[in-house]
Amino acid sequence: MANVFLVGAGPGDPGMLTLRAKEIIESCDVMIYDYLANAEFLKWCKPDCEILYVGKKGGDHTLPQDQINGLIVEKARSGKVICRLKGGDPYVFGRGGEEGEELVEAGIDFEVVPGITAGVAAAAYAGIPVTHRDFTTSVCFITGHEDPTKSESGHNWAVYGQSTSTLVFYMGVGNLPMIAKNLMDNGRAADTPVALVRWGTRCNQTSFVSDLEHVAEEAQARNWQAPSIIIVGGVCSLHDKLGWFEKKPMLGQGVIVTRAREQASGLVGVLREQGACVREFPTISVEPLDDYAEVETAILQLARYQWVVFTSVNGVKHFWQQLRAIGLDARIFGGMRVAAIGPATADELRARGIEPDFIPEKYVAEHVVKGLLERGIAGSDVLIPRAKVAREVLPRELKAAGCNVTVLPVYETRLGQASGDEIMEALGAGDIRYVTFTSSSTVENFFELVPADAFRNFPEVRIASIGPVTSDTVRKFGLTPAIEPEDYTIPGLVDALIKDAAAK
Q1: Is the pLDDT of residue 97 over 70?
Q2: Closest Cα to residue 210, out of 226, 196, 194?
Q3: pTM for the full model?
Q4: CATH says 287-415 is which class?
Q5: Which helix H or strand E contains 47, and what residues bound it?
Q6: What are the percentages of helix, strand and coil residues in the chain, rounded to 5?
């Protein structure tokens, strides 16, 4: 069996990665990746995976190709599973063929995992079908940057110039004036549409359409940079008509998500769907308790409570883990009433066979208390499974109403990051537009890592808070949230972000 995999990472959008590629990334012992392979894929690597960056961009080589070849062979001979992750497809201007030859000469078995190439994907994301019956029935992929050591060019400009094919040039931005001139000199009309797509399929994709005569001049005026592809042909005239990706409401907007990693996927996924450049910075780590003896005792005595109030998804999950550990299930809730502080918590209960008796209209403790009192909770025995450290409003108000309240810690939260250097660097580079906070804890932990005084140096960055309690915590640091939804939920927060981005 092969222990080296030449894997195509696709054009950059994580959704364009193949299932087979993800399998290899998750199981490999050594990851050797390129500049154009989305570094986000590295989060799928095993904790003990050795990760090596060998990227090349614009003449800046971390390792020259011969040393990359040698590195792959060296690691493979150790018996480890090697993932050589390359942007796009390994065999489309990815030098995968050269790496494969090197492995054959070394007697090492390998497997190729094809990837979606940018010449098709980036064009599609820019609204350009590379073939279209009204324009062309063929497409030609061409390198825009040949091997400088070759004795003669492999280009046949006469064929390119006279062809009716769509021409897609890779790595050609630096040679754009030469490419345009050679095509015109060899028969392509000066008014032939030309499109440039930079960072195709990623949240920072940009593109524009010009023509052969003016494209080099316009690219220079725009200070256009690599990585980009160049598309030449009548299909480029469909860019404005069929373009869809660059119409996403939050395209290119840098958003920091501070939720715990276990809870962030929903918010991250929705924001990315809207085009945002999401940077995960989980300021909270949700951890189990060291000792669950107290929780086990409470579960075994659950029948003495008239109400159980769950205040978070994590509370449900960790409570149920202990419930199952002692051989019990949802039937233990028979005869009592259950409340959920919000729709996500309610869904977590429904997934375990419990339909909540009460979900407040406003998802903060004060409204929970009001609704519970209207439902006759006063004087009841109440159990509240929650975090070890949390706001005391709910238990305090219920006790004031004559309830016998038991607060039951079932998990704890800790600081989720060691340093805020990554965020400070992103802020300094102007890559961040929004910072989202979904609880008071995320605010407090964020500003423990990123000092509020330093954050004030970036007044253009807008704080988005999920609700008034979280906003009050932001104000304690001398800052004012710019965004607070009327509906204190993740969907409400996303809607508010989209409206703000559209307004700006």
Answers
A1: yes
A2: 194
A3: 0.83
A4: alpha beta
A5: none
A6: 40, 20, 40
Q: How far apart are CA 71 and CA 324, in angstroms?
A: 48
Looking at residue 147, what is its pLDDT?
A: 67
Catalytic residue ranges: 34, 56, 171
Tell me whether domains 254-283+416-503 and 287-415 share a fold.
Answer: yes
CATH superfamily of 120-247: Tetrapyrrole methylase, C-terminal domain (3.30.950.10)
Short-list 401, 393, 416, CA closest to 311: 393
- Per the structure block, which two tokens stand in for 406? 């038991």
The β-bridge relationship of strands 30-33 and 82-86 is parallel
Residue whose tokens read 């040679």: 175
How far apart are the C-alpha atoms of 215 and 195, rounded to whole Å? 8
Burial of 429 (0-12, 13-18, 19+ CB in 10 A): exposed
Domain 4-116: assigned CATH number: 3.40.1010.10
Query: How many residues are there in the chain?
Result: 504
Tens of pLDDT, residues 288-345: 999 999 999 999 999 999 999 999 999 999 999 999 999 999 999 998 999 998 888 9
End-to-end Cα spacing for the chain: 55
Condensed to tens digits (0 to 9), the pLDDT of residues 252-266 reads 999 999 988 777 778
Identify the H or E element spanning 148: none
Q: Enumerate the domain spans of the chain.
A: 4-116, 120-247, 254-283+416-503, 287-415
What is residue 422's predicted lDDT score, i.e. its pLDDT? Answer: 92
The whole-angstrom separation of Cα 70 and Cα 75 is 9
Fold of 254-283+416-503: Rossmann fold (3.40.50)
Distance CA 192, CA 501 (A): 35
Q: Which residue has the tokens 């993800």?
A: 22
**Which of the residue ranges 45-59, 384-398, 422-436 has the most confident prediction, judged by mean pLDDT?**
422-436
> Which sign, positive or negative, has the C-alpha torsion 80, 84, 85, 88?
negative
The bridge status of strand 284-287 relative to strand 404-415 is antiparallel
The three-state secondary structure class of 482 is coil
390-419 pLDDT, tens digit each:
888 889 999 999 999 999 999 998 888 889
In this prediction, residue 121 has a pLDDT band, given cuts at 50, 70 and 90, of very high
Q: Which element (helix H / strand E) includes 424? A: helix 421-428
How much is the mean pLDDT over the chain? Answer: 92
Report whether 202 contacts 40 (CB < 8 A): no
Which two tokens mark 201?
């399929």
pLDDT of 425 over the 80 cut = yes
